[in-house]
Each structure stands twice: as C-alpha cells, then as structure tokens.
Specification:
Elements lengths: L6 E4 L5 E4 L2 E4 L3 H12 L4 E4 L17 H6 L5 H6 L3 E4 L1 E6 L4 E4 L16 E4 L1 H14 L3 E3 L3 E7 L2 E7 L4 E3 L2 E4 L2 H4 L1 H5 L4 E16 L6 E6 L9 E6 L4 E9 H9 L4 H10 L2 H9 L6 E10 L7 E3 L5 E2 L7 H19 L7 H27 L1 H7 L1 H22 L4 H35 L1
Parallel strand pairs: 2-12, 3-4, 3-13, 4-9, 6-15, 13-19
Antiparallel strand pairs: 1-2, 5-8, 6-7, 10-11, 11-12, 14-17, 14-18, 15-16, 16-17, 18-20
Helix pairs in contact: 1-4, 1-10, 11-12, 11-13, 11-14, 12-13, 12-14, 13-14
Bound molecules: flavin-adenine dinucleotide (FAD).
C-alpha cells in the first residue's frame, strides 16, 4: 500500500470524511511522538487532539532512558537545556522529615568502556517541550486536528474509522490510541482486562520561583510506620521555576476534604511540615493549584489487528518511578515501527501483537508491583529503612531500563528473555515483602 494523500469528502450522512494512513487519537506526549515517527517513515498521519483546555501537563523528572528517546525525535539534551526548556538531572535525593538524606545516582565508572552509559538525564518544562514537539509534528506534515473523538467504527476487532464530537469521520487502515489514562478510548471500546496496582491516588502541584540551581530531583517524605507512603516532589523544570507536588491516597485526601480543608489548605499544611518548604511558603504565595487523580494500572491486549494503544492509555506507571515519559516515548516508537513495518500487509501478525503487549505488561508489573511492595507499603521500608528500601527498588529499576534500551527487545526470544529477568526481580521483591511482613506480624504479636 502506497502513501495516500489525505483527502476530505462528504459521506452519506453529510459528515466530512478524511482518509489517511494512520489516525492517532490524542496529541499528548505519546500521540505527538508517534505522529512524528510515522511522518518521518513517510506515512500520512492525522492526529486528533481536543486541546480545548490548556492543561498543566506533568511528567517533569525523566528517567535515564528518556533522553535517547527524545534524541530520536531530534530533541537532544543539550538543545533542551540551551533553550531553557530543561535542566540537568544527575541524581535523585530522598529526604525524610527527620533530616536524613539518601542520594541515588549512577556510578561514574558506568560512563567508561565497555558500558558508555550517559550519567545525566533531564528535568523538563513540559509546556515548552510540548510546544516544541507540536511545531516539529506540524512541520513534518502531520495533520493536527483540534477535535475530540467521540466514537469508533469497527468491523469485529478491526477499526475502520473514528468519529468526532462534531460528527467528522476519519478513516484509515491503521489507528493509534494515545488518549491517556482518563479516556483510554480503545480499552473501553474493547473492554480490555486490566490489572491495577495500589490504591487510587491524588496529586496536587504548583510552581515556585527557583531560588538556587539544582541538578537533581528531591523527594520529601515523612513515612509513618503504619501508613501507606505520602510524598512531595521538588523538580527544577527550568532555570526559573521549580515544580512542587504532593501525592497521597485518594482516601486520605477525601478525609481531609471532608473535614473542611480546601486543596490549597491541604497542600500548604503538608509543605509546612518540612523546613525547606516552610521557608519557600514564607516568601511566596501558593500559585494556581493543579489536581489530578489516577490509579496505576496496565491494560492487557493493547494491540489489535490494525491498532495499538500507547502511553498512559496502555499503562499508567506510578509517578514516583519517573518512568511515565520513558514509557510513553517507548510505546510511541515501537508502535510506529510496527505500523511502518506491516503497512503493506494491512494487519499486525499475532506475534508482533503478542510481543508488544507482553513488553508493556511486564514493565508495568515490574515498576508498579516493585514500588508498591518496597516503598509504598510499610513492611519493607519499616524493616530496611526508607533509604535502603529506595536502593532496593532503584538499582534493579534503573538497570532494567538500561538493559531494555540496549537490548531493544522486539522478537519473541528477546521479549521472553527480558520478561524472564523482570520476573526474577519481581519474585525477589515479592519474597522480600512476604518475609518483612511476616517479621512485622511476629513483632506485633510479641508486643
Ligand atoms: C501526578 C503525575 C506526575 C507525573 N510525574 C512524572 C515524572 O516525573 N516523570 C515521568 O516520566 N512521568 C511522570 N508522569 C507520567 C507522565 O506524565 C505521563 O506518562 C505522560 O505524560 C503520558 O503521556 P500520554 O501522551 O500517554 O498521555 P496524556 O499526556 O494524558 O495525553 C493524552 C491526550 O489525549 C487527549 N485525549 C483524551 N481524550 C481524547 C479524545 N476522546 N479524543 C482525542 N484526544 C483525546 C488529551 O487531551 C491528551 O492531550 C506523571 C503522571 C502524573 C499523573
């Protein structure tokens, strides 16, 4: 099948009908990245994004694997830092309220032969990054349509068209669902099974003027022995601003709201517990608050005969892992590659669908399952201490991301082998959790 030029005509119901090679639902990070990859591969792409509200997008502290994926979109780290759209991230610091601090950073010898691993990553100003990505996407010939997809048309498992709220119809042989966590359009349409991790959570965040340069993300916490973890992020998104956010369970926030507190009150009260923020609040008014709720989960069967789901519509990875952006960019690159590879065939072979789905499932289980058991739930962190628990989670997580980037699993064998190594770590984290929980039960019984 050759590349067709998009054309608009009237269908029998008088709605405009647009034909192209690939229709992308959603123009967030994953949607734009997929659009750019596909346009570069010579396909005619329509990307439908309502963009009605200027949402404050999150995803500001990037994992070490994200820069190479941004590089593939011609957004190298030096350029982003030079444009003041990003700052360097060289470490993560975990600070507890009692004054303890633990630093996590890749060991310097990994930068040398034979590994040659990049020891820096980025914090990004998502508004500036996304604006730059939109410009690139449009310049590459992608047709960005400001509309909202309301429904899909299908023939069994195969999609044939999508319809927008205004009644316009978009037909193509291929589709990508990048509609994000809240919409998850195709997961709902096909009623896909999903696995959830941990409780529903709420994040609230705002921005403060930066007072000092920093090359790391700081996570502030005050872990209580019997409670699920709450935490605060501090991310220098550009030289002028820092992003500060508070994450807690939906149940905890609901209780506070029911006691009459506003979102501003809750945020301020939480920050005031830490001397770092008490000083910040003294000198600055709390800016406009952003609030979102989510529950970490992964959908199963995220690839159909002529469609793939990418980004948070496929899997929602806990923000504390800083893996959402990497996942979104990875899905976008892999889904685009599959479409470019099989476009003449008109459908994805089952092997390709199986492997794509398996990789998303395995990584989501590894990151979400690990962070829940080792860091969020009390037994392991009570036993090992917060700092050591952080190391127990961070080391395999960082290593597995590096291995994924190097191995680039695609076929059955590499996907299986990679999945097997993730399963070993998952078993390890499960075993650690079980042992620590038993011991804490024994101690509790003895008292
Ligand atoms: C509180 C929080 C903090 C986070 N922090 C980090 C972090 O520090 N580091 C990190 O790596 N990741 C982080 N993440 C994750 C990261 O933000 C996301 O993984 C990433 O931005 C996902 O991009 P996406 O394109 O999949 O989804 P989105 O950015 O949600 O994009 C989906 C798009 O689809 C559009 N859409 C929705 N419905 C329709 C429809 N019907 N028709 C057409 N379009 C539609 C929406 O308008 C939206 O633009 C965080 C997430 C949260 C919730």
């Amino acid at each position: 099948m050759g590349t067709r030029v998009a054309n608009t005509e009237r269908d029998s119901q008088q709605a405009a009908s647009t034909n192209c090679d690939v229709t992308i639902i959603g123009g967030g990070l994953a949607g734009k990245a997929a659009a750019l990859h596909l346009a570069k591969a010579g396909l005619q792409v329509v990307c439908i994004e309502p963009g009605e509200l200027r949402r404050q997008v999150v995803g500001e502290s990037l994992d070490w694997s994200a820069p190479a994926l941004l590089d593939d979109l011609e957004l190298p780290m030096e350029h982003l830092v030079g444009e003041r759209s990003a700052t360097w991230k060289k470490h993560v610091t975990l600070k507890t309220r009692d004054g303890c601090a633990e630093h996590y950073e890749p060991t310097p010898w990994l930068a040398g032969p034979p590994f040659h691993i990049e020891l820096r990553t980025l914090h990004v100003d998502r508004t500036r990054l996304d604006d730059e990505l939109v410009k690139k996407t449009i310049a590459s010939g992608v047709n960005m349509v400001t509309e909202k997809v309301a429904s899909v048309e299908r023939d069994g498992q195969k999609l044939t068209a999508v319809r927008t709220e205004r009644g316009n119809r978009f037909c193509s042989p291929w589709f990508i669902d990048a509609s994000g966590f809240g919409t998850s359009l195709l997961a709902r349409e096909f009623d896909l099974p999903a696995i959830s991790f941990g409780p529903a959570k709420v994040a609230m965040w705002t921005y403060f003027p930066a007072t000092e340069a920093s090359e790391g993300t700081t996570l502030h916490m005050d872990p209580a022995e019997s409670e699920y973890l709450e935490w605060i992020w501090e991310i220098p998104i550009n030289p002028e601003w820092i992003s500060v956010g508070y994450v807690a369970t939906g149940a905890a926030i609901k209780m506070k709201r029911e006691s009459g507190l506003t979102v501003d009150d809750i945020f301020r009260q939480q920050l005031e517990k830490f001397p770092r923020f008490a000083a910040l609040l003294q000198n600055n008014a709390v800016g406009e608050m952003n609030v979102t709720s989510y529950r970490c989960r992964v959908n199963d069967r995220v690839a159909g005969p002529n469609w793939l789901i990418v980004g948070e519509a496929a899997s929602m990875v806990d923000p504390i892992t800083a893996n959402g952006v990497t996942a979104a960019l990875r899905h976008a690159a892999e889904a685009s590659e599959l479409i470019a590879k099989y476009r003449d065939r008109g459908r994805l072979p089952w092997r390709a669908r199986f492997c794509y789905n398996a990789r998303i499932m395995q990584l989501a289980k590894f990151f979400n399952g690990g962070i829940e058991r080792i860091v969020y739930e009390p037994p392991v962190r009570n036993r090992l201490g917060m700092g050591r628990s952080g190391t127990v989670y961070t080391s395999p997580a960082w290593s597995m991301n590096v291995v994924y980037a190097r191995l680039q699993p695609k076929g059955m064998v590499s996907t299986f082998l990679f999945g097997l190594s993730l399963a070993v770590f998952r078993f390890g984290s499960w075993l650690t959790y079980v042992i620590c929980k038993r011991r804490s039960n024994v101690v509790a019984a003895a008292h």
